Amino acid sequence: MKNLSHYIVFWIIGQLPLFAQTNFPFPSADAVWSVSSKTQWWFDTYADNHKYTVMGDSILNGITYQKYYHCPDSILNLNNLSFYALLRQDEQTQRSYVLYPSEAVEHLLYDFSLQVGDTLSDPSYYLDWWWGEHLLTVTQVSFDDSGRKKIYLSQNQVGGGAEEEVWIEGIGSSKGLFNRTHQGLLDEPEAELLCFEQNEEIIYQKYPNTCHYTSITAIETLTNTGGFALSPNPANNVFTLHYQLLPNTLGSILKLYNAQGQAVLQQAVSPSNTQMDVSVAELPLGIYLCTLATNKGEYWSQKVLINR
Predict the structure, then answer these.
(1) Measuring CA to CA, how many Å separate 235 from each of 137, 260, 305?
(2) Which residues on adjacent β-strands are paired with residue 167?
(3) 134 has pLDDT over 80
(4) Which CATH superfamily is domain 228-306 in?
């Protein structure tokens, strides 16, 4: 009977969760985060794809940090990497801290010791401007099939409603590894984590069979009846200008604007020069506004999609 009691005790212990402490720190190498950044511009939505990876470490003020890099593309191009931030982990406290190049002090990025009901005052930044703080509340703590801790947080928003966010141990936020420090503003890109890969194995994937956006939603047929049109639309590199009501385009100017209203490309137009090569500016995928100002004071505009 005594042996049976001991067996039952050991069996019960064996059934207890083995996830009482952090078992999944952020990787120090061979990891890639795929993050999208969606922006609402006028009545359209376009998305950019981003990759983040970790390579090497750095010692600053006697503290060892992992070095993280950013690639503004759907494919991790090592020739297009730029340093993004330093990250360190305290596995004893289950907290992670980030240090950005433009700042002198580190910020708390994640705290996987949080429990249901705990709150976290989170600084908000927008275009490098401090925008105040917002309060995150833990609504649920669970574990996935592999044992990674998942922390569900809710942020009350002005005007009612709540924005949900999920932290996954060793992976980061559902908004991306670093994007959780940004408060959602009307004109700020909405970020989401699409995939996390480690040692060339996909550990997390939000949507089946994809780790980046390949199409744009909410785009109406791009046509123009005012006198000119560009084709093909969408295009990878070169747009050709077609005009019906402009018998003489000599001295006209064709300009391309991005979502921030910045002129990113312009060229003079003539009967012998009716093409715009957008590849020279290495413009990212997205919706742009193309305008034509003629030598007669006429002005037309058309939305175009660059799909590179």
Answers:
(1) 45, 21, 7
(2) 151, 173
(3) no
(4) Macroglobulin (MG2) domain (2.60.40.1930)
* Cα 125 from Cα 179, distance rounded (Å): 10
Rounded distance between C-alpha atoms, residue 162 and residue 18, angstroms: 32
User: Rounded to the nearest 5 degrees, what angle is found at the Cα of 92, between the Cα atoms of 91 and 94?
Assistant: 55
pLDDT tens-digit series, residues 192-222:
899 999 998 999 998 877 787 754 433 333 3
Q: Which secondary structure element, helix H or strand E, spans residue 65, and what is its range?
A: strand 63-71
* 241: β partners: 230
CA dihedral 131, 98, 105, 94 (to 10 degrees): 110
Is there a cis peptide before residue 232, judged by omega within 30 degrees of 0?
A: yes
Return the domain boundaries, the chain. 22-205, 228-306
Q: Round to whole Å and give the CA distance between 65 and 258.
A: 36
Exposure string over 153-168, b if 16+ CB within 10 A, otherwise e:
bbbeeeeeeeeebbbb
In the block, residue with structure tokens 């994007």: 179
